Amino acid sequence: MTTNDEQLVTEVKSGNKDAFEKIVERYYKNVLNFIFHFLGDKQLAQDLSQECFLKLFQSIGSFRGESELKTFIYSIAKNLCFEYRRKAKGQPNLVELFEFNSDPNKVKDSRREVMVDLASNPLDNIIKKETLSLIFEAISSLPLEQKLVFILSEQQNLSYADIAKILKCPVGTVASRKWQAVKSLKEKLKRVLMD
Amino acid sequence: MRCEEIQKRLVAYADAELDPLSRNHVKHHLEECPQCRAQLEETKKVLGLYRSIPELKPEPEYLERIVEAIPPEKSTQNKLRLVSKLAEWFNTQNKVVRWAPIAATVLIIFVLIATFVPGRFASKKKNLLERNATVYTYYEHVAKEKPSQAEPKFGKYSFISIY
User: Fold this and answer.
1) Could you tell me what percentage of chain A is helix, strand and coil, using 3-state DSSP and rounding each to the nearest 5?
2) Which chain A residues are within 8 Å of B46, Cβ to Cβ?
3) Looking at the partner chain, which of A24, A42, A132 has a beta carbon nearest the beta carbon of B56?
4) Does residue B87 belong to any structural domain of this protein?
5) Which of A93, B41, B83, B156 has the fewest C-beta atoms under 10 angstroms from its C-beta?
6) Which helix (H) or strand (E) holds A131?
C-alpha cells in the first residue's frame, strides 16, 4: 500500500468525504476501463464502476490494510462483473451483438465509440477499427478466468503477484492462465498477425 | 529445457515476471533456438495489438456522478467511524489482548446460563412438589372426616360437579 493511499483510507475512516473523492479520482479511470474490457459495454462499465466505488465507501471501514487499496478495489470490481454475468445469464451475449460494420457512419456499438478517433486517414481508420474489433472479439471469447488475468495484466498493468491477490490464487496459476490466454489469442488472431 | 517448456514461459518472460534463474535459462535457449525466438516475437505482437486499444474516456460528468452518489448521512459516517475505530483497535493490539474481550463475553454468557437456567427449572420442580403435597394432605383430611366424599361420584350429572 502506498503511503498516500494509506493516509487517504485513514482519513476516510475518520469521516472525511474529500479523501474519498481523491481515491475515486485516482482509480476511476482504471476501474472503468477494466469493467469495459471485461464486459464490453460502455454504459454498463459506467454504472458498475459507480457501484464499485459505492461498495468501496461502504466497506472501507473493514479494510484492514493487509493488501494494497488498488487490490481491494479491483476485487470489488471483479466481484461486481461476475455478479452481473451470473444475473445476466440467459440474456443475449454482448459479444454476439457486436458485429463489425465497415461503414463508419453506422457506428452504434459502444466499443466502436472508442475506436472512432484512431487515425486521421479514413481508410486507416476502417482497417484499424476492423483489427480492434477482431481483437475485442478474440478477448471476449476467452474463458472468464483467462480473460480476467489477461485484462488485469495487459490493460491495467498489474503484476502477477497483485493479480494473484485479487483472484486469491497462486502466482503460478496467474502465469499459466495468461500463457493459455495468449496461446488462444494467437490462434484467433492469426489473420491479423499475418498482415 | 525443451522448446515446449520454454514456450510456456515466454509470456512471463516477456512480462519480466520470471525469477532470475528461469529468465537466464529462457534467455540462453532463445539465443540458440530460432523457433522459440519466432514464438516470442508472435507473443509480443499479440500483446502489442491489445495494448494498441485506446483507453476509454469517461463522460465529463462521470466523476461528479460517482461523488454525488456517496451517501452523506451522518448515521453512515458515525457507523463507519465506530466500525473503523473498532477495526483499528483490533488490528493494533496483540493476539491475547485482541481476543480477551470476546473470550470474557463468552465466559460471562456461559456463567449466566449456568446460574439462571438450572435455577429456574429447580424452582419449578419445587413448586410442583409443594402443590402435590398440599393436594395429598387435603384428600387425606377429607378421607378422615367424610369418607363418602373422598371418592369421586360418577352418577347422573356428576360431570357437572366435576366441571
Assistant:
1) 80, 0, 20
2) 182, 185-186, 189, 193
3) A42
4) no
5) B156
6) helix A122-140
The number of folded domains in chain A is 1
Mutate to test the interface with A, among B39, B43, B75, B84 (most CBs of A within 10 A): B84
Q: Which residues contact A78 (CB under 8 A, 6 or more apart)?
A: A148, A166, A167
Q: Binning pLDDT at 50, 70 and 90, where does residue A97 land?
A: very low
- Distance between CA atoms of B131 and B125, rounded to whole angstroms? 10
- A85 in any annotated domain: yes
Residue A74 lies inside a defined structural domain of this protein: yes
Task: Tell me the C-alpha distance between A93 and A133, whole Å.
Answer: 16
**Nearest alpha carbon to residue B62 among A181, A187, A53, A156:** A53
Helix axes A3-13, A17-39, angle to 10 degrees: 120
Mutate to test the interface with A, among B50, B63, B76 (most CBs of A within 10 A): B50
B27 occurs within a structural domain: yes
We report the CATH number of the domain holding residue A79 as: 1.10.1740.10
The DSSP code sequence of B91-122 is: HHS-HHHHHHHHHHHHHHHHHHHHHHHHHHHH
Measured CA to CA, the distance from residue A16 to residue A4 in angstroms comes to 15
Residue B115 to residue B70: CA distance in whole angstroms? 49
Residue range(s) defining the domain that contains residue B22: 3-51
Lowest mean pLDDT of A6-10, A94-98, A171-175, A191-195, name the range.
A94-98
ipTM metric: 0.75
Q: Does B89 touch chain A (CB under 8 A)?
A: no
